[in-house]
Every structure is written in structure tokens, then in C-alpha cells.
Amino acid sequence: MFDKEREAIFDALAADWSSLPGPPLAAVLELLEGLKLEDKVVLDVGAGTGVLIEGGLRQRPKKWICCDISSAMLAQIEAVWSGNPGVETLHADAHDLPLEDNTCDAVICNSVLPHLRNRCRALAEFRRVLGVDGQLLINHFQSRSRINEIHRSSKHPLLREDLLPPADVVAAELLELGFEILQSVDSEERYLILARKPE
Ligand SMILES: C[S@@+](CC[C@H](N)C(=O)[O-])C[C@H]1O[C@@H](n2cnc3c(N)ncnc32)[C@H](O)[C@@H]1O
Asked: pTM value?
């Protein structure tokens, strides 16, 4: 399974992506603070142009794997980070990760969830690659209504349907898949779900 339609859309968007305002470094540091990533293997799913990398590396993870369906997005990460042995790129679809079971300590999905066309399958993949005690962080630095407003006005018809569901819907799916929910925020400022693989 490789989402060719979104691959083409995001490949086309990649050139302009890094000129869009990303989250401030302080916000990224605050987001990742609680994850305790030192010496950990982190999978940054839908990494885009790598807005989380600088903040993430401050915690000295063992490995920061940037996975994306768009090779054009990953090329931008490589242009900046290829000299850093801790940063790897992985051209893959989140629904079908070419990673062994139990090999990641944290999976981070920043601004990606609405684009996953079979969300439950992707969430199950995240659980599969996480080790016991591994954490899944789903985040948007804006509210669900703002994200959905932006997507509904996309020039790409496919992305207009990429809508973010209420956090309690996703939390229920995660519980069903055997995750434990540590935090769930679906407010006017923020959308965040933090879950843990208990066993
Ligand atoms: C809105 S961008 C967010 C990029 C980055 N995480 C950020 O916060 O700037 C969504 C990213 O998810 C990627 N993506 C979409 N569907 C994907 C999938 N099925 N598997 C992996 N990456 C995917 C896109 O190529 C794009 O780079």
C-alpha cells in the first residue's frame, strides 16, 4: 500500500513547504519535553521538511527516523541533515512501515493524522513498531476546527476531505488497538493525543 495520490500532491507542495511558517522552536521543545527521548529511537511519521528535528535532537535521541511518503519532502531534510548520523530518512507509507516489530521508542505524528487514509491501519502499524512502554504522540499546533478549515479550502480536492476527527474518537480507536491514553487535548488552541503501548 503506497498512497500514490497524496505522494504526488505532497511532492508538488514540497518546494514551497519550508517557506511556510513552521512552529517556533520553543513550541517544539515544549511538545517533546515530556517524552524523554535521550538514547531513544524516534519515528517522525510524515516528517515533511523536518520541522521537529532541531528541537528533537536537543534531547540526544539515538536515532531520529524521518518517514514520509514524499521523496521531495525528504530531499529537503537530507539537504540540511545528511551530515548528522543520528538523522535517517525513510521513504515509506505510514500504513505499511518497513520496520521490524518493537523497534521504536516513540512515534510522533505532527500535522499528519488527517492525511492517513486508513487511520486505524496506520495506528496499528505505529503500535506494531513501538516497543513496550513506547509512546505515540499525535499533535497539531492549532485547533481541530482551524485545521479542518484549512484543509476544506485546499486547492486539492483530495485534501479537502482530509479532516481531523475529534480527539475522543481517535482515543477510542487507540484504546481498541491496545494503547493506553495518557493525555488528550482537543481545545481552541491545540489538538494533542499522547498514548502508550502498555505491553
Ligand atoms: C501537513 S504535512 C506535515 C509535515 C510535518 N510533520 C510538519 O509538521 O510540518 C503532512 C506530511 O505527511 C506526509 N504524508 C501524508 N500521507 C502519508 C503517509 N501515508 N505516510 C507517510 N507520510 C505521509 C506528507 O507527504 C507530508 O509531508
From this structure: 0.97
